[in-house]
Amino acid sequence: xxxxxxKLGVNLYAxxxxxxxxxxxxxxxxxxxxxGMTLCTxxxxxxxxxFGVGMLLREGALERINVHPLLAMGLFLSMAVIADWCGLIFxxxxxxxxxxxxxxxxxxxxxxxxxxxFASTKLxxxxxxxxxxxxxxxxxxxxxxxTLEIYVLxxxxxxxxxxxxLCGWMLGHHPALLEFIFSPILAxxxxxxxxxxxxxxxxxxxxxxxxx
Length: 212
Fold this sequence. Notes:
Blueprint: H1 2-8, H2 12-30, H3 34-39, H4 41-67, H5 69-89, H6 94-123, H7 131-144, H8 147-158, H9 163-171, H10 175-203
Helix pairs in contact: 2-4, 4-6, 5-6, 8-10, 9-10
């Protein structure tokens, strides 16, 4: 679909939106059917927004955002607040709630993406001698270049994490704040452990498990 949008010369923003509507229609058509389960149509409409945002950033949106980074951060932060507020209102509607959850996640991710880029550009090596920024970039690069390995291994890894206990503990102590803090930390740690495990698997000639 991404190639079709580019080949047909469709406006990129309109193309991304139309494909998402198509996936949403397919989801509603085949939801909880053998066809839907086999083709994973329940997930296409959920994952496409993040993929579409990546396309838009690569095809010029990032340059336009970087012209006014502070304005963009304010916009995305406002989007996150609105999406979170709307999610509370439509709590009983699964599809609508998920849409706002996706919007919230993308807005927060873009906010931090621009924030870190802005801090790196403006502060550079003046910030802790550049060591902290370089380490952050190394972590991001390690995760970004091993997404396949993380995708394959993370499910097996999180089975050892006491999710039920952690969830119960957070529910009793400011759940929204704690989730905002703990979820990113757990996600990064899980990804890094998967990267380390994958490197050892490649050394043991087990790369074929990743299709390589």
